[in-house]
Amino acid sequence: MTVEEREQEEPQVPAGPTRHAKIMRGVVTPVFGLIAVACVVLGVLNATIWQPSREIVATATVSGTRYVVTDPGVLGLVDDRVSMTVKSKNAEATVCVAEGSMKDITGWISGNPYVRVTGLSEWTALSVTDAEAQGSDLSGEGDVAFADSDMWTTVSCDTGAVTLKTTDEDASRVALVDLGEDDVSATVTMDWVRQSVPDFAMPFYFAGGICVVLAVLCASVFAMSPHKRRKAVSEAAEAEAEEPTEGMGPGNAVAEPESRRARRRRHGRGRTAEQVEQSEVEGPNIVDPAARNLVSDQMRSSEQSGDEGAGEQTSVISPDELAAYFARLAQESAPETGSSEAESSEAGENDDAKEGE
Amino acid sequence: MRSRITKLLAAVAALGLTLGLGACEGRIPEPQAAPADVDQIPDLTEEQESKIRASILETLDQATQNMSGDGLSARVTGPMLDVRNSAITVGKATGGLDKTNTIPSDMMQTVIPVDSGWPRTVYTITTTTEDQQSQRLLVFTQDSPRQNYKLWGVARLFAGAQLPRFTVPEIGTQMGLPNDTGLVATPQEAVERYADVLQNGANSEFADQFADDSLRQTIASVAQTVQEGMERNNGTQTQTFTVVPDAIKIMRSSDGGDLVVAQINSEWTRAAGDGRESLPASDEEQALFGDGTATSTMKVTYVNIVALYVPPEDSGEPITAVGAERKPIKVEAI
């Protein structure tokens, strides 16, 4: 194809945007844009009014017991620091909460029924269950008052209601409540202030960001007609790929196969012996026996003999090559979108490329 | 019309789904399982031990100030209760507690058990006293979870005594049993044999199983002196040592041996001959005897708290007494 032919052909390309571009810019981009806006809005909502509350307060009502014991790990369930409040129905009763090791507490309540606090049933409710401590009641003469026991690491007692603030880092401590008398009812409240609140906003922001990027791409690169995009890319690739070979001798094993491959791609599948020869003579043929690299020579000869895989594996795929590949893929997968003009202009371009060499 | 209803339903559904996304607190946490070695954590922290010791010493100080043993039982038990009551009685007669009853408030080392059951034993080794008396080995015991730790015994460590090593209090120590094996003798046997050695001295069949110590030497030399005095007027003296059942506390050292603290009671019967009266042999005995009427025979009951290190079987070492306390608690003329 000559320059004149090409000039004649150019006016045949439609002046307005193609159908492909219309769909991309008119449908896909707004869809991505809407999703992006929705994601950002949801993200902002999750970061503000829907933000998980920092303070978790869970309550349970227990009845018909004297002792309440938390399971190991319940004190530090939401956060290491917890404030446990026990309010007896009997405002006159002395209520105590102590923190100690499980084995000490098991010893203290041995043989007595108690209520276990097993965890959270929901964010505002503690789950409780009745239990009976193993062993026999060990209370006897010379016993000390609950508050005076040596075993507790912390203990606090008060009339009617009491609060114990404590820290449980390794689930080794449990809390024991003594309501002061048998068969009473009480409310147990645990209050944690979360140091780390789950961040539900960030995933939305992230998805929103991706949608924005996709929308921009759809409006620009993806809306471009495939052959246009490919031409721009292949020209850039040629300029880039040929440059380094100029100054380098046959000793360079990396640059040469790349430049050959770039050319091969442009010409489509298959390669004639003529083309190979062409590419061979193209690079400056400096014969310097001292700089001769046998390994690269070997590689070259193996490449010539048709072993393309070896060259492919060792080389790096440049972004331009990747873009060109995607462009071809898009074209192949959607042949109906390309008009007959586009087909013919593409053929012309191929011819041009051949001529250029 | 129908499409409007469909639209309305769709809008409601969309709104509901969107709201469902919000107001979410995250997943409800499950309690993390307790660490597998939760039963292996020490029964007390060092701070707790310190608090307990301070409380016990306060009780002792209170009793000393009041010169009365009332209220001691809240924090003192076992042989130590007898020893302290006796010391107060003697102190009342002599105008103050003997210096050997001093217990320093600072500690060098504490040995805390990891055992789950009761009774529990805690050893604490104090510093030397202000007047450079030797360190004290304090033995605390908690008999039941509903009771507090009480001072069960105090042994004054012998000069130069080598105590075995124990694991640090943060890790905790296993309590031993009276029938622990793998040792040169079980702790119970060791105490019984030591009682025999105290009674028979070098003539005991077990004498060579024990390293020499100052308690043995003192008892032997005092007995020798008294024997000589008694022989001059055809009197006799005998001393019998009896292991008190179940009065034994054991902690396993890190080298595989046991540090055993046990109570051995002894009765010293002195019969004066030639129609003479048998009199108290020391100021302490005199104070305890008080204004009692002396007869030809005097029986003095001593409480001996002995600390024995029983080494592992393959160590080839003898059993060593590392500390002891010996106090008369009763003097009677019979």
UniProtKB/TrEMBL annotation, chain A:
Residues 261-270 have a biased composition (Basic residues). Residues 332-342 have a biased composition (Low complexity). Residues 235-357 are annotated as: Disordered. Keywords: Membrane, Transmembrane, Transmembrane helix. Residues 295-304 have a biased composition (Polar residues). The keyword Membrane applies. The chain crosses the membrane at residues 27-50, 204-224. This is Asp-tRNAAsn/Glu-tRNAGln amidotransferase A subunit.
TrEMBL record, chain B:
Pfam families: DUF8094. The keyword Signal applies. Transmembrane segments: none annotated. The lineage of its organism: Bacteria, Bacillati, Actinomycetota, Actinomycetes, Bifidobacteriales. Residues 58-317 form the DUF8094 domain. InterPro entries: DUF8094. Keywords: Signal. This is DUF8094 domain-containing protein. Residues 1-23 form the signal peptide.
